[in-house]
Specification:
elongated; 3 helices; 130 residues; two-stranded antiparallel ribbon; alpha+beta
Length: 130
């Protein structure tokens, strides 16, 4: 039976060699992050963990794709705006990429620093927040 729910451990998948598509590419969405809340009964604490895969880590190819997506968004925004405050840039990148995934502000900051090191961007000499 066809189900629109997430796959379970009991589901099986097989390769259909007879399948053909008129499209040249098949689009596979990136891994979505999920929030998991764990409660520790003996200590009485609740912790929230963000995971993207069953083992709790983001696969390396997905991480690399996300790095490129964030960097491309930063460059695209800065080409259009020329100058932007750091917090405004992070907010705009998050807004643009929220359709695909929600990047952490620290992740965006690392990508901005990488672009500055590679001289794609530069900080304002008068105000380091720009």
């Amino acid at each position: 039976a066809l189900s629109l729910q997430s796959p379970s451990d009991e589901d099986t998948f097989t390769f259909n060699a007879d399948y053909s598509s008129k499209l040249k590419r098949v689009r596979i969405p990136l891994v979505k992050e999920t929030m998991v809340t764990k409660s520790n009964d003996e200590a009485g604490t609740i912790s929230t963990v963000t995971t993207a895969a069953a083992d709790g880590s983001i696969p390396l190819p997905v991480e690399e794709d996300r790095r490129h997506l964030v960097e491309a968004a930063v460059v695209r925004i800065m080409k259009a705006r020329k100058a932007l405050h750091h917090n405004d840039l992070i907010a705009e990148v998050t807004r643009q990429l929220s359709v695909r995934f929600t990047p952490a502000p620290q992740f965006i900051k690392k990508r901005i620093e990488s672009l500055i090191e590679r001289e794609y961007l530069e900080r304002s000499l008068e105000d380091h927040r720009v």
